[in-house]
Amino acid sequence: MLLWCGPLTSQSTVRSARMYADLSPDDGGAEVRIDYELQTDGIAPLRFELLGFGDSKAEGFWFGDRDTGVPMRLEAEVGSMRASEFSLNSAAEDGAFVFTARYWIADAVVRSGNRVTVNVPVLSVALPPSPDAEEVFGAEVVLPDGWAVSGSFPTGISQSAASTFSVGLAVVPAVVTVRGRTDGVWRPDLAFTLEVLAGLVLLVFGAFGIRHLRETMA
To answer: What φ, ψ does residue 177 adopt, rounded to 5°?
Structure first.
């Protein structure tokens, strides 16, 4: 599975990256799985990168399951960046390569009283997103029962099931961040407040514009 086979080509892209992060045990950690689908023009060396955020980081990952997969070490680079370069040696006839990566973030949760911030660094492949895909990246984050979510990065997170929250993006981000509270009380975060204020400003300017137009036409 780690045999070098040729140079990476300009046709190689990320078709899909689906991340599943489980924080339901409420032990401060995150069990992470990412299902990748790549489009490659021939088999080639790949570079994997993971950017740490404070104490939220990982030193390695597994291909496949933890018990039966292949462990890979991420080497320290500049700052909190860790990376690994290696090659995969099989793909479908249409150039698609599908695989799963798993890793553990020991300190994914930052607590301040009842307020929590969850940072899940994303193990990314150094390839551009497919131009044909509207939403290359998708994430599902399972939180402990009773937690309330007030905001996220990427923005637009929504509850898709009990204690499960989903968000999507056109590219693969370096991190998925969720902000909320452990006591179940929903309170707006700064991003939500700014969106509301921006909406109010647009409403005021819209009302002013309609009034001005009516006065002009009168």
So the answer is: -120, 135
- The C-alpha atoms of residue 1 and residue 87 are separated, in whole angstroms, by 8
User: Whole-prediction pTM value?
Assistant: 0.79
Judged by DSSP in three states, 208 sits in helix
pLDDT digits over 84-95, tens only? 987 766 555 677
Domain limits of the chain?
Answer: 13-185, 188-218
Which tens digits make up the pLDDT trace of 94-140?
A: 778 888 999 999 999 999 999 999 999 999 999 999 988 889 999 99
Residue 57 structure tokens = 């980081």
* CB neighbourhood size of 45 (10 A): 13
Ranges of the chain whose pLDDT falls below 50: 1-9, 192-200, 202, 206-207, 209-210, 212-213
Q: How many CA atoms lie within 13 A of 78 on its CB side?
A: 0
Q: Does domain 13-185 have CATH number 2.60.40?
A: yes
